[in-house]
Design brief:
The chain has a single domain, classed as Rossmann fold (3-Layer(aba) Sandwich), CATH 3.40.50. The protein is about 50% helix and about 10% strand. The chain contains eleven helices and seven strands. Strands 2-1-5-6-7 form a five-stranded parallel beta sheet, with helices on both faces. The protein binds ligand PTJ. Ligand PTJ binds next to helix 2, helix 4 and helix 9.
């Protein structure tokens, strides 16, 4: 069932994102479990205050510097990301010279084709990893995510994996690749195992990645390398977790659990 979301609804933005995902599910882009995964993300976003934190911004800068200095960067696309940020995937791939590869946990030929079509309609020139193209395997990985394109993830040195499950992140890191994850849950295995974890909503992080890449693309390599060296993922994750605990303590002390404007 679809509803018209009242624009003055205090949760209008969040409801619009849900509607996009429901539509994505109905058109075969989003996996049924993608809706559940989004709910988990929403819960963490609530705890983070539903905005990009300074530590997420630091991770975004380090991620962009890593993508811009990579030899073979790849953006791995699943159902949720394809539905929520198709234009940003393409814009980021353009500015960082990254390849785009479809890689699904709930892999079916139909979903891969539907996602390829969606990305091509949004302007992608080449979409890897679909059907027989995913002829290579990530070692020691049991899930369907192990099937990768020999022109893409297999030979990549840097892989951006928005909304991931931890197993593949760990396997890619074991293969010597740098993994950049976008995950609202700083406690997830993905968040803990990635080289750089952006603890932010993919709907905010992707536009910021594009914007930051535009700003940094002409910077000298040494400056980009400095940004990467200064970044420490476990320290950054600690900052995210501290921010959540401090925010909750503050709200508990105030006796108010909603950051609502006064008139409400
Ligand atoms: O499209 P497929 O077949 O590849 O399947 C995709 C899902 C997401 C179903 C699959 O990768 C999966 O099951 O993922 P998990 O293990 O549920 O992990 C998803 C993670 O993404 C969780 O830690 C969520 O907190 C996080 N998450 C959900 N929505 C968002 C998010 N992180 C950032 N932005 C979001 N909008």
């Amino acid at each position: 069932m679809r509803i018209k979301i009242p624009e003055d609804h205090p949760r209008a933005e969040s409801l619009h994102i849900r509607e996009k995902l429901i539509k994505g599910f109905e058109t075969g882009v989003v996996a049924c479990a993608g809706l559940i995964a989004h709910g988990r993300g929403e819960a963490f976003d609530y705890l983070l205050g539903e905005k990009t934190t300074p530590s997420a911004m630091e991770a975004i800068k380090a991620a962009v510097a890593t993508l811009l200095t990579a030899k073979n960067p790849v953006i791995s696309v699943n159902g949720n990301t394809a539905t929520l940020t198709p234009k940003e995937i393409i814009a980021l791939a353009e500015v960082t010279r990254a390849k785009i590869e479809v890689n699904l946990f709930y892999r079916t030929a139909e979903r891969e084709e539907t996602i390829r079509k969606l990305l091509e309609e949004a302007g992608a020139r080449q979409v890897l990893g679909v059907g027989e193209d995913a002829s290579a395997c990530i070692p020691e990985l049991g899930s369907e995510r192990r099937r990768v394109d020999p022109r893409g993830i297999l030979i990549a040195d840097v892989v951006l994996v928005p909304l991931e499950d931890g197993d593949r992140t760990e396997a890619l890191v074991k293969m010597g690749k740098k993994v950049i994850a976008v995950d609202l849950n700083p406690l997830s295995r993905t968040a803990q195992k990635a080289t750089i974890t952006i603890v932010d909503n993919v709907t905010r992080a992707m536009p910021l990645l594009v914007q930051t890449a535009g700003k940094l693309q002409n910077e000298p390599r040494e400056k980009l390398q400095q940004i990467i060296q200064r970044f420490n993922n476990s320290e950054n994750l600690s900052k995210c977790i501290s921010l959540i605990t401090e925010r909750l303590s503050e709200l508990a002390a105030k006796g108010s659990f909603l950051d609502l404007p006064k008139e409400e």
